[in-house]
Recover the amino acids of this structure.
């Protein structure tokens, strides 16, 4: 996935001279995960900015640069370090269009590694996407494969709206996939049906998809339809509704804490819309309402096959 | 006692008491820093280096996670925290495992924390050592708050915050300076300027000539000291502490040092740093010059050095064994400290999880 992201950045920088990369260690170091590797050598220090260590500073200045006509692609070193920039994102980046009645806008991409599962230090395992899906005016995108990562990032860089682009750090180097050399876009706001099925619908995003597919590979008799949301805000309700219309059973799998998470929102909306028509109550498999544990306790927190399987059984055994 | 006015950072001054050859400017030496105390500091710095060395090797073997070494910067944390009082608070970032040594706490906690068990951050309340702070620049405010509370209550207790020069770019660090200045907090801001914030060199971090002058901007003294000189570090911290305790407000100490190793065990400095820049700093590192001084004074010899090497090696070995035999987190451990009381929801989530782990 790292290479696919790098290629997307490279191709879009070549195509659009206004694209500027900025962040901590994105230049000579190539980013701590190497996503921006080689770009400073190719495009120089006016297109790739190694910034001072200040997230509010990075996002706030990116807003100014964006209004001026550049297309900043910001890297925040880890999702947990967007918090110092929270004010800039929520109060300004997400609202500038609304506040100026569409006169000023600040298209930019804020990329950041996201999620638990790489045995990282404290504060490096956050999956608090709900803070931002709860914020109107900024799109939130999560790729689940190298192919999607490239196409979604290109679309994000071409979007007229600011985009928070969450890169599951667990997938950076763990999945290999051929990615076309050509430039291609994957539309934002559209979910993807990863697998067709009739018995139940499973909705997930990011690294949870891999967990879902692994679980399903162990039970060939089950016909599950799997939806990769790809964009968390705005959410593609149509794809979810169409699928649930067919299967009448829904499972949502999310890494994030349960209370106030996106899984709860999807569950509530589907339960309302399909009131009396579901074959079983909607199930959610999620993280817990606790601080993500440090590496030696990480496995206890993480959604795994056993937990997904149990929810599937519960859903399919009631009719 | 050191007069900060003599070391105005805006005039490019830096305090050095012992040079890299171990020569001492006796007139500047604080009386409190006896040779006996210096030997203690030297031993603690040596132990810190051994801890970092062992941790790096454990990390390569997959027995420990990512951590940040103090290699080359040992004098900063050790000599400064040894200048603080027993009741004083230490608020570290993530490169100050030396504070555990200075506070006489079990060093096994360092290994346990970076193995990935948060029980390592459960220290006795009276130790007055804050847990590791990973989010850069987030913790100086806490030291400002501790120092404000002490001032409001009329206590002499002080707090010292540690952070890197990169952290001075974060807004929160500057807010900490400002609050401490306004409330004349019993706080010492100790910046380990090791010249690099991962791949970002000092000169790209701020257009200011020194970090120390940022104190001046907030209305209190800043001083740059040779951070590889334990005498200078100790003298500046001691003087800053005295002022803070007497209600004269905070001080910013810029400890001018150098990160001899990689940023962390996940980093590779070769990618962005010219080895030729690193080379001369090996001659300036703090253990070397302290040893030269002690040897010149006839207080140290090869035998003592060998004994010390054995001692720290064994101490670290015992600590690692201690950390490795500590049981991993249980399900209770990861839930029970969320709130003062376990909520019904958390109780339910915990019972649900336990079905999958009948053995824990
Ligand atoms: C808020 C925040 N942003 C980014 C990071 C990632 N990060 C960890 S250490 C570091 C560099 C810190 O440099 P400095 O403050 O000079 O301290 P040093 O590590 O050199 O001791 C960065 C960018 C972080 N931990 N927290």
């Amino acid at each position: 996935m790292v290479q696919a992201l790098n290629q997307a950045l490279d191709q879009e920088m070549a195509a659009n001279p206004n694209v500027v990369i900025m962040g901590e260690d994105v230049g000579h170091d190539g980013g701590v995960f190497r996503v921006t590797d080689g770009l400073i050598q190719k495009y120089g220090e006016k297109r790739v900015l190694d910034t001072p260590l200040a997230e509010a500073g990075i996002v706030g200045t990116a807003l100014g640069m964006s209004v001026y006509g550049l297309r900043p692609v910001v890297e925040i070193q880890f999702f947990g370090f967007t918090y110092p920039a929270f004010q800039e994102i929520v109060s300004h980046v997400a609202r500038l269009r609304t506040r100026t009645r569409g006169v000023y806008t600040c298209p930019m991409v804020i990329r950041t590694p996201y999620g638990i599962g790489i045995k990282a230090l404290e504060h490096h395992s956050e999956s608090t996407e709900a803070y931002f899906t709860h914020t109107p005016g900024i799109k939130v995108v999560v790729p689940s494969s190298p192919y999607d990562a490239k196409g979604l990032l290109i679309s994000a860089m071409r979007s007229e709206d600011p985009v928070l682009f969450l890169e599951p750090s667990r997938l950076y180097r763990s999945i290999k996939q051929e990615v076309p050399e050509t430039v291609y876009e994957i539309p934002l706001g559209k979910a993807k049906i990863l697998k067709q099925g009739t018995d139940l619908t499973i909705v997930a995003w990011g690294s949870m998809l891999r967990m879902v597919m692994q679980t399903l590979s162990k039970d060939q008799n089950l016909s599950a339809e799997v939806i990769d949301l790809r964009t968390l805000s705005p959410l593609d309700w149509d794809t979810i509704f169409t699928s649930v219309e067919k299967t009448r059973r829904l499972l949502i799998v999310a890494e994030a804490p349960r209370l106030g998470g996106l899984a709860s929102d999807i569950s509530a909306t589907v339960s309302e819309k399909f009131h009396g028509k579901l074959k079983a109550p909607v199930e959610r498999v999620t993280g817990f309402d606790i601080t993500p544990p440090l590496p030696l306790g990480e496995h206890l927190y993480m959604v795994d096959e056993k937990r997904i399987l149990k929810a599937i059984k519960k859903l399919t055994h009631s009719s | 006692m050191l007069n900060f006015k003599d070391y105005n950072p805006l005039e490019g001054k830096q305090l050095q008491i012992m040079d890299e050859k171990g020569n001492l400017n006796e007139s500047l030496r604080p009386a409190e820093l006896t040779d006996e105390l210096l030997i203690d500091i030297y031993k603690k710095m040596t132990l810190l280096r051994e801890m970092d060395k062992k941790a790096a090797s454990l990390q390569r073997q997959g027995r420990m996670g990512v951590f940040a070494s103090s290699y080359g910067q040992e004098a900063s944390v050790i000599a400064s925290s040894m200048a603080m009082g027993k009741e004083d608070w230490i608020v570290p970032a993530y490169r100050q495992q030396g504070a555990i040594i200075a506070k006489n706490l079990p060093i096994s906690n360092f290994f346990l924390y970076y193995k990935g068990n948060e029980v390592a951050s459960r220290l006795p309340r009276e130790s007055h050592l804050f847990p590791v702070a990973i989010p850069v620049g987030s913790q100086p405010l806490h030291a400002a708050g501790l120092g404000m509370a002490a001032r409001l209550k009329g206590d002499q207790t002080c707090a010292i915050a540690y952070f890197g020069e990169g952290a001075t770019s974060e807004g929160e660090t500057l807010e900490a300076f400002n609050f401490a200045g306004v409330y004349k907090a019993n706080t010492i801001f100790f910046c380990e300027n090791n010249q690099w914030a991962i791949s970002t060199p000092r000169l790209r971090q701020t257009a200011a000539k020194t970090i120390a002058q940022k104190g001046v901007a907030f209305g209190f003294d800043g001083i740059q000291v040779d951070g590889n000189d334990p005498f200078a570090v100790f003298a500046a911290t001691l003087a800053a502490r005295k002022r803070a305790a007497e209600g004269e407000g905070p001080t910013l100490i810029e400890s001018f040092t150098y990160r001899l190793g990689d940023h962390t065990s996940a980093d590779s400095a070769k990618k962005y740093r010219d080895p030729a820049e690193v080379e001369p700093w090996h001659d300036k590192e703090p253990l070397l010059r302290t040893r030269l001084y002690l040897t010149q004074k006839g207080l140290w010899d090869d035998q003592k050095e060998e004994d010390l090497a054995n001692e720290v090696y064994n101490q670290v070995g015992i600590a690692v064994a201690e950390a490795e035999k500590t049981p991993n987190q249980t399900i209770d451990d990861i839930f029970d400290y969320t709130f003062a009381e376990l909520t019904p929801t958390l109780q339910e989530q915990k019972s649900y999880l336990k079905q999958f782990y009948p053995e824990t």
Summary: Residues A 24, 53, 55, 77, 81, 84; B 68, 95, 134-136, 163-167, 192, 194, 196-198, 259, 263 surround thiamine diphosphate (CB under 6 Å).
